[in-house]
Structure to design on (382 residues):
């Protein structure tokens, strides 16, 4: 008697979610969300670096389940996870950011709304999700300030300033596809008042070019610097998170400049190709920050075990990007919820199997390389 086949729509891991998303999306859209810059070496390195780290489980702890509930910048969370800011989510599903924000709410996690979201920050915050607002530095400083005020008025709990995009990385898949946004997908927070001309740059396909890259160059100010960070710090009372930190010296300076948290991130391998994997940069940043603020991390997280590795290396929590977006593409709000539930379930199981009853124990867990060597700076969170 043969074993019953499982429901093809039931994801058992994040790879299942990715495959479902790939089937659901047009090729150029899949390439836009899945691809990296250049040869995609950093995209691959994010995963291989995590794969090269091994957890050292503790025995005889009496732990029956891992309690992964905690807090991120004052926001209570069911697990130390936040949905990373991702632009133009209506590309993958008509409900876009609203569906993913609702999925984050139901999962008990933070949703970081992108400045380039397909819905306004007011609409996203209106879902009831615990919302942080991600900000790029616009060429028009007054417009940047106005977005900060809108985020505050909408009830966002933190600002996340992304600092690693002086220009967009050269994403070859998008160039080969001459990728452009459809007219129905816009950066809703940047839409101009009725009657004013709106830029069509992001929607104008040109052979061998990315319209999204052209729009980024037109919209974002590449001269963002430490003085601008001081300006934004003085502009808001919200907690300020600096995303895109890789160098320990930059991390220390960000804290001195008033950052309430930093995110170790190479932009998911979509900016500088050849950059250090985020998990490899994490211990040095944790050491430089020296408990003065939380350190979060993104880049390559695909399982609960990956989250546990980041916690063991000193992260307060992780941001999850592609897995949540893949879930949205595969099944809308329910698909995104399923992806987030998977990560939560896997983290609970990994913690229990490692003998960690809570997040404090997870951060005391030892990690080694596959060859048994100590990971650089291990123990910074002890």
């Amino acid at each position: 008697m043969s074993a019953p086949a499982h429901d093809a729509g039931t994801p058992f891991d994040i790879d299942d979610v990715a495959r479902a998303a790939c089937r659901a999306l047009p090729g150029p859209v899949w390439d836009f969300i899945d691809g990296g810059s250049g040869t995609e070496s950093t995209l691959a390195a994010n995963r291989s670096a995590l794969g090269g780290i091994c957890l050292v489980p503790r025995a005889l702890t009496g732990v029956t389940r891992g309690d992964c509930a905690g807090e991120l910048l004052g926001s209570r969370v069911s697990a130390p996870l936040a949905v990373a800011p991702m632009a133009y989510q209506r590309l993958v599903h008509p409900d876009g950011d609203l569906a993913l924000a609702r999925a984050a709410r139901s999962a008990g996690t933070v949703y970081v709304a992108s400045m380039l979201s397909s819905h306004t920050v007011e609409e996203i915050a209106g879902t009831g999700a615990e919302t942080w607002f991600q900000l790029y530095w616009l060429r028009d400083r007054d417009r940047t300030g106005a977005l900060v005020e809108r985020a505050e008025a909408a009830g966002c709990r933190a600002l996340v300033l992304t600092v690693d995009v002086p220009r967009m990385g050269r994403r070859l898949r998008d160039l080969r596809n001459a990728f452009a946004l459809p007219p129905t997908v816009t950066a809703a927070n940047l839409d101009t008042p009725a009657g004013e001309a709106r830029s069509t740059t992001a929607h104008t396909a040109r052979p061998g070019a990315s319209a999204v890259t052209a729009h980024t160059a037109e919209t974002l100010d590449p001269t963002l610097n430490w003085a601008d960070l001081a300006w934004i710090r003085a502009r808001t009372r919200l907690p300020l998170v600096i995303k895109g930190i890789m160098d320990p010296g930059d991390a220390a300076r960000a804290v001195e400049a008033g950052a309430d948290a930093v995110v170790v991130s190479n932009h998911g391998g979509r900016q500088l190709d050849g950059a250090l994997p985020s998990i490899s940069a994490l211990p040095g940043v944790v050491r430089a920050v020296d408990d003065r603020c939380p350190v979060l991390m993104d880049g390559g997280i695909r399982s609960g075990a990956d989250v546990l590795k980041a916690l063991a290396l000193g992260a307060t929590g992780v941001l999850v990007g592609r897995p949540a977006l893949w879930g949205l593409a595969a099944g809308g709000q329910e698909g995104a919820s399923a992806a987030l539930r998977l990560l939560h379930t896997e983290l609970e199981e990994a913690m229990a199997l490692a003998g960690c009853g809570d997040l404090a124990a997870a951060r005391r867990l030892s990690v080694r390389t596959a060859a048994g060597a100590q990971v650089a700076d291990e123990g910074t969170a002890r």
